[in-house]
Amino acid sequence: MNEEQKKLEKVVLFPGVVAKLVGKGMEALKEKQFSEALSYFEQALEIEPDHPQGRFGVALSLIEQSRLEEAKDVTEQMLNEDIGNYYDILQVHISLLVQLGHYDEVVSMLEGIMEEEKLPANLAESFYHLLHFSRQMVEDGTPVEVAEDIQVPPEDLIQMLNEASPEKQWLAIQMLGKMSSNVFFEAVKDYLKIDKRDPVLKSMILQMLKEKHIDEEVEIHKFGKNINITVSEMENVFHEKFGKDTLAIVAEQLESENPSLFEMITQLWWHYLYALYPISPEPLSSKLWAAALHKVGGEMTGHDEDELQLARQYNVNLEEMLLCSTKIMKLEKEAFKG
Q1: How far apart are alpha carbons 28 and 311 in whole angstroms?
Q2: 34, 101, 119, 309 — which has fewest CB within 10 A?
Q3: How far is CA 215 from CA 118, 182, 220, 231, in A?
Q4: pLDDT digits over 38-88, tens only?
Q5: Pair 18, 51: CB distance under 8 Å
């Protein structure tokens, strides 16, 4: 009997058992019983080795136990074997690569995907930012890879987070992210309150809090605003529809005649929205931000645009367009670069 026949026989012999084991594994994850969850998922895979939820459950259980390298191997194998929802797995895999400091792999993967296909809007915001950041890390050669067996006490990492350069703050966040959910939350909640701290790093922290299923209220200071929000109630991509609608307007003007400029504007826009998260752009006018992006993109690539003509082209107020373009440029200059 070959391997495939053996697998089939196991599934037939244990009808419904796999689903029950996976269900118990998911329940154990919710209850933060991570070793128990891993055991359930592994039992399910003994019967049905290619079960998508079972494989994904193993990855999530390993992540919660800070066994990131092992989790990366699981998600990598799932992507290679086309098991499970591709983009769900890709999102977790890229997050693991970033946390492990494998920036060259992030760049290689995302660039390859973007060349072949358009990213779904619900992933574009964070992926474009991670590509932008990882490119900086690769170019600068910043030594930020973190070992699996962390020995640095949380108190030292908190001090690094509050006193060091943005590069060191990034490293502290990644190292704290490998610790338990409670330790991570207690360490970063004060960072979110300080208005002068880097907005992009705050967005990363919020994303990690959500990935860790932390159900606590956080206070966030960004760009002079004070926000109180429960982590579990935050959308994964707060600006998804607005961001997509804005790019659709730019695409009408640029995508066919200057695709490289449109691609650059797309990255610029998602990077801006990521840094702004969870604040919405003001005013909420897709046409206005589309015009501003066109102006900024043109300037950044050495094409001086006729501002009045551009405002007329997008049917927006000139002064409002200039104000929005200034906001984009200001954030792009001030936001953390790797």
Answers
A1: 56
A2: 309
A3: 32, 11, 15, 6
A4: 998 998 888 888 898 999 999 989 988 878 889 999 999 999 999 988 888
A5: yes
| pTM tops 0.85 | no
Block residue for tokens 């690769």:
138
Helix (H, G, I), strand (E, B) or coil at 221: strand
CA 62 – CA 28 distance, rounded (Å): 13
Token pair 């200057």 is found at 258
User: Residue 259's domain spans which residues?
Assistant: 240-334
CA distance 232 to 205: 13
Ranges 14-23, 70-79, 270-279, most confident: 70-79
- Residue 175, both tokens: 């190292």
In a domain, 182, yes or no: yes
Residue 162 located in a structural domain: yes
Amino acid at 315: N
Q: Examine residue 197 and state whether it is found in any structural domain, yes or no.
A: yes
How many independent structural domains does the chain possess?
Answer: 3
Half-sphere exposure of 10 (CA within 13 A, CB side): 17
- Are 179 and 260 within one domain? no
- With a pLDDT cut of 90, the percent of the chain lying above it is 19
| CA dist., res. 7 & res. 47, Å (int) | 7
Domain check: are 249 and 318 in the same one?
A: yes
pLDDT tens, residue by residue, 134-148: 777 776 655 444 444
What angle separates helix 318-334 from helix 259-276, to the nearest 10 degrees?
70
